[in-house]
Amino acid sequence: MIIVKVGGRALPNFRSIAEDLRDHQPFILVHGGGDVVTEYSRRMGIEPRIVTSPSGIRSRYTDERELEVFTMVLAGKVNKELVSSLLDVGIPALGISGVDGPTLIAKRKKRIIIMDKGRRRIIPGGYTGKIEEIRTDHLNLLIEGGYNVVMAPLARGSEGEMLNVDGDQAASKLALAIRPSHLILLSDVGGVMWEGNVIRRLTPDEASDLAPKLGMGMNRKLMMAAEVARSGIEVVISSGLVDEPVTNALKDGGTTISI
Amino acid sequence: MIIVKVGGRALPNFRSIAEDLRDHQPFILVHGGGDVVTEYSRRMGIEPRIVTSPSGIRSRYTDERELEVFTMVLAGKVNKELVSSLLDVGIPALGISGVDGPTLIAKRKKRIIIMDKGRRRIIPGGYTGKIEEIRTDHLNLLIEGGYNVVMAPLARGSEGEMLNVDGDQAASKLALAIRPSHLILLSDVGGVMWEGNVIRRLTPDEASDLAPKLGMGMNRKLMMAAEVARSGIEVVISSGLVDEPVTNALKDGGTTISI
Q1: ipTM
Q2: Whole-prediction pTM value?
Q3: Is the CB of residue A136 less than 8 Å away from at least one CB of chain B?
Q4: B77–A77 CB contact, under 8 Å
Q5: To which H or E segment does residue A39 belong?
Q6: Which positions ≥6 away from A208 have C-beta within 8 Å?
Q7: Does residue B137 belong to the interface with chain A, where contact is any CB pair within 8 Å?
């Protein structure tokens, strides 16, 4: 069993990913789609809001209206289109979100501090969560029954609210709970880049040491990959835009993090 | 096991329906939500299109853009909100659509004839389907595993496209395939009305005879109810807006169609 995360930037190549996945069943596929959310938010008159933390980190702020768009676009449009593409190539698949079951239980920050015109200001935390618990009984039932599962990165909050969660985090936490042979993180880059080249192999310790020297997105991805790899699961960070992206990832065609 | 269809007009009372469903597990719940689709279509600048058949029947025409809104609103927003409400009252639930599995396989009309300014015109059929096949293995897995299933009325077309399907039809076809003890169709009316009163009981034959004398919506609903009842499953058409709507339906609080 493998877990594959397909980031939003790799989704345009999903037809190839689907064809390749025929030879890698059973799988759980966690998808992104933030760019599609932004497009539909704008169509509904909602401008994405970026906030800056006191330490200068800029991040997207999901308010209640935008969370609704996340739910519609990720659990509705993107999830069902991916399920349809898998069915098109003969792969039995069911699409759910982390809310269903529930599968992913997350915690929302009640308040956050942001910088507003140079001054600190406390605002309610957005509808984004940090995953704290994973439940997998229903996933095991489906996998054992011969189905593959496509999961939208939404979670159930501790007060019953829906929350947007990071797709890499969802895939990593699922991997730690379900223990697949491999966790494959597909995006639009060929792997972890260092001095212009893709690093082929890293131990978990090497990955943890390297992560802080990388850009924001890859930093977090690599920290999570290190944690999963440390538990004995092989993690591959590679491109979803090449031919046979899953087979390529499993044949060292990216950065493999393993003990 | 029961199958419950909750029409869009009964959704505002879903909190009561969810509390009541605690005592009626396991269940499969098929939901509507066409009014919510219309609202979001308008927000995205899509006006609902109504077409008139040569025999004068007016119906909603789902084009490709509106099908996308159906997918987002029904499989995303409405489905996940209902799952959240069930989880809120302690009911383990998973939300899928008829595309997933696939569960519902439907056929789309390639072309339809409409009246346009008094003249017949042939246009491509909309993205609406008639259900032709039901697959239930995954539903049985989940039900036997202790989960309840919430289903959005979308189907997979014979060419892999997604289609909007009628919720009553989806619930009725599922009932014929899965054979629950009861099929309960909840809407905003107390049952089948005749001369100002709710009819308490009908045999399948009585229901088939009465159906053509009723309004368009109830006509189709009652014809499907008769077909399901004829197979030995008790069907109840009743209000989702009363207290304990499911318990009420099972205690003759609507129109019961049975052999």
Answers
A1: 0.95
A2: 0.96
A3: no
A4: no
A5: helix A34-43
A6: A222, A223, A226
A7: yes
Answer whether CATH 3.40.1160.10 is correct for domain B2-180: yes
How many Cβ pairs within 8 Å bridge chains A and B? 117
Chain-chain contact of A71 with B68 (C-beta, under 8 angstroms): no
What per-residue confidence (pLDDT) applies to B55? 86
Q: Annotate A93-106 with b (16+ C-beta within 10 A) or e (fewer).
A: bbbbbbbbbbbbbb
Output the CA–CA distances (angstroms, integers) from residue A37 to A86, A150, B45, B115, B205, in the order listed: 22, 18, 17, 38, 50
| Average model confidence (pLDDT) across chain B | 95
What's the one-letter identity of residue B210? Answer: L
CATH assignment, A37-165: 3.40.1160.10
Q: Where in chain B is the domain with CATH 3.40.1160.10?
A: 2-180
pLDDT of residue A34: 85
d(CA B78, CA A72): 9
In this predicted structure, what is the pLDDT of residue B34? 84
Q: Are B72 and A73 inside 8 Å of each other by CB?
A: yes
DSSP A55: T
pLDDT at residue A8 in the model: 93
Alpha helices in chain B (DSSP H): 14-21, 34-43, 64-70, 79-88, 137-144, 167-178, 204-210, 216-230, 245-250
* Mean of pLDDT over chain A: 95
* DSSP class of B74: I
Which of B72, B95, B161 shows the shortest C-beta gap to A100? B95
CA distance A147 to A158: 29
Structure token digits, residue A161: 């609210």
Chain segment B169-218, per-residue pLDDT in tens: 999 999 999 999 999 999 999 999 999 999 999 999 999 999 999 988 89
Does the beta carbon of A73 lie under 8 angstroms from any beta carbon of chain B? Answer: yes
Contact yes or no for B99 and A87 at CB 8 A: yes
* pLDDT at position A122 over 90: yes
pLDDT at B154: 98
